[in-house]
Amino acid sequence: MADVLFGQSYYLRFDPKLFAAMQPYPPLGTLYAASLLRSAGYNVALFDAMLAESEAEWAAALDREKPRYAILFEDNFNYLSKMCLGRMRQAAFNMARMANERGATLIICGADATDHSDQYLRAGARYVVRGEGDATLVELMDSLTGKSDRPLEQINGLAYLQDGALTQTTARAIIRELDTLPFPAWDLVDVEKYRAIWLKTHGYYSVNMVTTRGCPYHCNWCAKPIWGQRYNVRSPENVVDEMLMLKRVAKPDHLWFADDIFGLKPGWIERFAELTEAKGAHIPFKSLNRVDLLLHEGTVPALKKAGAHTIWVGAESGSQKILDAMDKGTQVSDIYDAAKTLHAADIRVGFFLQFGYPGEMRADIEQTIQMVRDCMPDDIGISVSYPLPGTKFYERVKSQLSDKQNWEDSDDLAMLYNGPYATAFYRHLHTVIHKEYRARKTLRRLGKLRPWRLGDMRQVGAMAYHTLTLPAARAQLDRLAAVPHTATIPLESV
């Protein structure tokens, strides 16, 4: 039995696209909160929704642990939690009801709960911890358990109902000295279950960690409900110490640094590379970096030395007009140069692409497709502009939003506002781009493939299929582009 049962509401099973990809990672933000609360003297347990079949397993965990307090602490390092997928919000509401039925006091912390505290409180949460929740949670628990006599109204970063009305306390300042936080509670994770899934599906085992919190840049579609515009970074020494810990307890083959931006602080990557080598902490990794920062002298060689296997970049668009409208702060030429530099260093490159931003027309889309052809990244991820509360983009289009303001899962790709084209166009655009990209990628590797290998034979067959069906797919895209649709708001008004 535990004083506190931690959980989160992102179920991989409820996200068909990512369930098929099967690259599960434990809820890192939840593990940080559990570790901090345990260091404050509380007995904690973990329910990991990532690998669960349904909310019924949460109910079973509640029955098993019989906690006084149930805490849904969402993994704020997972961009899908920030997107607030509709199916996961419903899961949180179901989990709240289950906790209430068993007499546990439910506390919830997350991006969606921060933006929509009233909804979560009326769905059964007793308290919503708003923003970065680590320190607030400790103060709240100390107050609830009598360890302190601090009244609720003096606990910053809290929301609750008082006489049926929403009450919110002063926002809490974020934690600046990240090295003071204990490492995530990896002992609560079923490491072997994760390892078995990764090895069966991909042949290697990957785990996640973070070196930073927040992002200082101004992309006007990017929500920042947890850390705002702030950016704080752990020391390279602290990060390498955690890597050494992970090598002991999890023995990973690969790391995913889940930072919004990896290695922004000048000199950080170089020092990190030195320490990984000196302390024997080297683990191949993937991270998300800005294209302009990758062009700084010494950055890519240091990434290679540190163990970078794949660098993802938020390319977003091949149209400078759209990048400028997004307040991205990068140049299309930066994307080309970064891809070339990374490939020259034998580092894989991934492009995140975003379509449907206000003002984007067919010519802009074609520029993005051409950029993919020219740069030939090793992987691509495609999304559609997604209005999130608290962003400049959201404020401009919120009058156009209907009752559906969230995707149900990550493959939804619904156009939630009156974008340039209808939803069907963007869903088919996703298909067209992938057809061409996969065919070109296989064609470039044709000389290295061995037809007698079943896997290679399948790749060649897929290439032939995509090539033959691409003209018809493009023709269908043209037809969908002509479907009448409410015009987007003017680019200059965003």
Provide a descriptive summary of the structure in words.
- With 494 residues, the chain is of the alpha/beta class.
- 43% of the residues lie in helices and 14% in strands.
- The chain has helices spanning 16-21, 28-39, 56-65, 79-83, 86-101, 111-115, 117-122, 134-145, 191-202, 236-249, 268-278, 291-294, 299-306, 320-325, 332-344, 362-375, 392-397, 423-444, 454-481, and strands at residues 4-7, 44-46, 69-73, 105-109, 127-129, 158-162, 165-168, 206-209, 212-214, 231-233, 254-257, 285-289, 308-316, 348-355, 379-384.
- The strands form three sheets. The chain has a seven-stranded mixed beta sheet, sandwiched between helices. The protein has a six-stranded parallel beta sheet with strand order 8-11-12-13-14-15.
- α11 links the parallel β11 (254-257) and β12.
- The model has no long low-confidence stretch (mean pLDDT 93).
Provide a quick synopsis of the model.
With about 500 residues, the chain is an alpha/beta fold. It has helices at about 15-20, 30-40, 55-65, 80-85, 85-100, 110-115, 115-120, 135-145, 190-200, 235-250, 270-280, 290-295, 300-305, 320-325, 330-345, 360-375, 390-395, 425-445, 455-480; strands at about 5, 45, 70-75, 105-110, 125-130, 160, 165-170, 205-210, 210-215, 230-235, 255, 285-290, 310-315, 350-355, 380-385.
